Amino acid sequence: MSKAKAQKSLDRWTKQKWTTASGKKSSETGEVYAPKKTIEKLKASRAGKKKLSAANRTKRKATREGNQYAKHGLHKGKDR
Question: What is the pTM of this model?
């Protein structure tokens, strides 16, 4: 039996190594979680570093305001 589209997506998501840019817990640093490949790609360019920095600022601000989630834009266009 074939898996549904949503189940395949969940399988791919589960196999990804999710982390922060520093490798520390987000609760300690306030950084966003993203797949390791995405983090490495962003850290490789100046524009990516700026985008990651802006996302972290947005995440920290949302956390200070008591929000669990932050619309930081790293996953924009990823159908989320």
Answer: 0.78
Average pLDDT over residues 36-65: 94
Is position 77 within any domain?
Answer: no
Which structural domain, as residue segments, surrounds residue 38? Answer: 17-64
Residue 70 lies in a domain: no
Which residues touch 42 (CB under 8 Å, ≥6 apart)?
A: 21, 34, 48, 49, 51, 52, 74
Per the domain annotation, does 58 fall within a domain? yes
* Distance between CA atoms of residues 23 and 47, nearest Å: 21
In a domain, 5, yes or no: no
35 and 52 in contact (C-beta within 8 Å)?
no
The average confidence (pLDDT) of the chain is 89
